[in-house]
Amino acid sequence: MNAPDTQTQNLASYNFAYLDEQTKRMIRRAILKGIAIPGYQVPFASREMPMPYGWGTGGVQVTAAIIGRDDVLKVIDQGADDTTNAVSIRAFFAKTAGVATTTSTPDASIIQTRHRIPETPLHAGQVLVYQVPIPEPLRFLEPRETETRKMHALEEYGLMHVKLYEDIARNGRIATTYAYPVKVEGRYVMDPSPTPKFDNPKMHQSEALQLFGAGREKRIYAIPPHTDVVSLDFEDHPFEIQHFDQPCALCGGEQVYLDEVVLDDHGGRMFVCSDTHHCESRRADGHRGALLGDEPGQDKEAMA
Amino acid sequence: MITLLVASEVKKTFIMHMRGGVELPVVANVSFSLKAGSCAVLGGPSGVGKSSILKMLYGNYGCDGGQILVEHHGRHVDIASASPRLVLEIRRDTIGYVSQFLRAVPRVSALDVAAEPLMIRGVEREAAHQQARDLFAELNLPEKLWSLPPATFSGGEQQRVNIARGFITDHPVLLLDEPTASLDAANREVVIGLIARKKAEGVALLGIFHDLDVRNAVADHVIDVSAFAAGKAAA
Amino acid sequence: MSHSSTLEALAAAGIPAPVKPLLTVEGLTRVYGKRIGCADVSFELWPGEVLAIVGESGSGKTTLLNCISSRLTPTCGTVHYRMRDGAISEIYKMTEAERRHLMRTDWGFVHQNPIDGLRMTVSAGANVGERLMAVGNRHYGNIRGAAIEWLARVEIDEDRVDDQPRTFSGGMRQRLQIARNLVTEPRLVFMDEPTGGLDVSVQARLLDLLRGLVSDLGLAVVVVTHDLAVARLLSDRMIVMKEGRVIEAGLTDRVLDDPRAPYTQLLVSSILQV
């Protein structure tokens, strides 16, 4: 494929991966500091990106700072490779860096994600880049940045449990289902970005490097490989992940995170894998869910 | 008889800064002693400084001179120069006081008001209440009032609560400021009986009584306060 | 006479009164540029003792309270505190972490406006439980149980435990703030006009509650108030301040009944008689 080369030439006025080298070095320094202090929010001079805040400006800057010509990039949005945000960011890097892209989790060297961790376990050498809207887990109860920074510095995390207490008081159980706070390497309490708490255990002792970028809030933080990540809880209300009553309607997968899809105006709905690559590869291996039918031919139609 | 309290050359002058710093001498050279098991009475016309002497003994007024030695926890301490903490300790354990008027605390029941001096000293609430109930019954305070805050009581009822509060403890020294002023004859008799009991227990009492009958019934000796009148001393 | 309680808990337990003060303030001064916040204030506070700091607005009493309670660094002077283990620590030589830990365990601070001392957007139960969680309690049932117990002690019904304080009346908020401070059983509580802004009957109820808690728990209290009636009801000793300086100090009832300083006489004579 010659397309990437042509496109880079077409964008000759842009540096590799859009950001200039000085900016990338600044971001890399922030990333290195973040890796050195797992879970600590490192301030960085976030740049204006050619996309609005909330569309992954933090994640894009982190990816731009670490991506090389040999990297293979996968971008997912809520687990899907084919949503607008994922497609746009993938196209952005194909255009500005000319890198190869993929939808395959194992084949990617960098996976930028919004709100999910892939079902396929990550392996050593991979980097997972999270797009983060609000990096401060204490913000919910303490609006002052000066105070939250002090609380992190002094390891005053009682407030985090106040939030969980409120959950139980109101709902009888910890009702926080996403952005569920974790303690990293026994020190910093961290917001894992709005991933479902279903994914929290995947962060613990991961083989991959996990980087978090918040563009609007100008913060970068990191979890190096093989780091302890523990979800906060109470002794009498231990942390639990979501459980689904039924397997994926398309691939029959269990122990995966499912999305609800409304089928019609009459209350029809199905639950399918939120991780589209995982679902597709299971179907390719011959797994079939309740709504997929039996014929291989129908399978292709459904896909189309 | 053992002497429990000695006042010597005690002096009191008010300086009224609100009126250009005018000096109002009250008493000077106040000297007397209180003995265990006896009741002394401060005598003299009103305005002569009887109440002021009582208040200085209780630490409520400061002294401008002299000494007030009291036997407290086995040693002699000077109330006139005692630190606030020591004065509070003396009030808790050594000198009791029945004031003329009750300073009612909102929402606190008559029983709690009367039992408080015991509870401060660590007596269990129920035991303290029982003693308060006994005293109320003896003082003919209607039972329906016991659990109410005394703020709305009549003068005589408030005074009986006050008397119960003062007599409930076993303070070795007891100061009485007109304890019978608003009482009827029957209740005056009760108070006379209570005072006699304190004397029998070896308490040293000092009181102000305008009621001659009561005074004659309880006084072992009279201290004439007009002898200490500051104007006289100055002149 | 109503001299409030002192040293009662210890006396009750048959333990001799401790011979050392809990808090020792020496030469405490805070200046704001050329203006004096408070100047050369010294006093000692003993366990179980209630000290009132009185004076009119701008007399420096709140500056003094903030300097003692480690909320405002003094320009000079020292504050020593006897920790639970008996060691004497100088407040402003402690690390910030130690100081903040002290403030949410062995100390309490009751603000005049409950909004400043409560989290208005979390439930009453969480407000009371926060200090317990801050010191590492991780059992929801126990935390909630303690919260309900403390709500009862400040006369708030158990069925309000999950309500946010924004739905509470002023008096209830203030009682909640007190419960929130007392749940870790501090030995020293600072109060800044705790009854300010409440109407008279609510004030009376709160004062009565405070008197009870102070004597039941053997609390040492430093209470700032401009209300001499509050000082008389709550405190054993008082300090009268004017223009940042201590004008008069002593036994509360003596300062009020036999005031010496011209300013104190003015203050006492200004009390409205009901």
β-strand percent of chain B reads 25-35%
Helix residue percentage of chain C:
25-40%
Total helical elements of chain C:
11
Total beta strand runs of chain C: 10
Uncertain regions of chain C: pLDDT < 50 for 5+ in a row? 1-15
The tally of helices of chain B reads 8
Structural class of chain B: alpha/beta
Low-confidence stretches of chain B: none
Order of helices and strands of chain B: EEEHEEHEHHHEHEHEH
As a percent range, the share of helical residues of chain B equals: 25-40%
Radius of gyration of chain C: 18 Å
Quaternary: heterotrimer
Keywords:
heterotrimer, A: 304 residues, alpha/beta, seven-stranded mixed β-sheet, three-stranded antiparallel β-sheet, globular, disordered N terminus, C: 274 residues, six-stranded mixed β-sheet, 11 helices
List the SSEs and their pairings.
The complex is a heterotrimer of chains A (about 300), B (about 240) and C (about 270).
Chain A (H helix, E strand, L loop, with lengths): L2 H8 L10 H16 L5 E2 L13 H10 L5 E6 L6 H13 L3 E2 L8 E5 L12 E5 L13 H9 L4 H14 L10 E3 L3 E3 L9 H4 L5 E6 L4 E5 L5 E3 L26 E5 L6 E5 L2 H9 L11 H8 L1
Parallel strand pairs in A: 2-3, 2-4, 4-5, 5-8
Antiparallel strand pairs in A: 1-9, 6-7, 6-10, 8-9, 11-12
Helix pairs in contact in A: 2-3
Chain B lengths: L2 E14 L5 E14 L3 E5 L6 H8 L7 E8 L2 E4 L5 H10 L1 E4 L11 H11 L4 H14 L16 H13 L5 E5 L7 H16 L3 E5 L3 H7 L2 E4 L5 H5 L1
Helix pairs in contact in B: 3-4, 3-5
Chain C lengths: L7 H5 L10 E10 L2 E11 L4 E5 L6 H8 L7 E7 L5 E3 L5 H8 L3 E4 L3 H4 L6 H11 L5 H14 L16 H13 L5 E5 L7 H18 L2 E6 L2 H7 L2 E6 L2 E7 H6 L4 H8 L5
Helix pairs in contact in C: 5-6, 5-7, 6-7
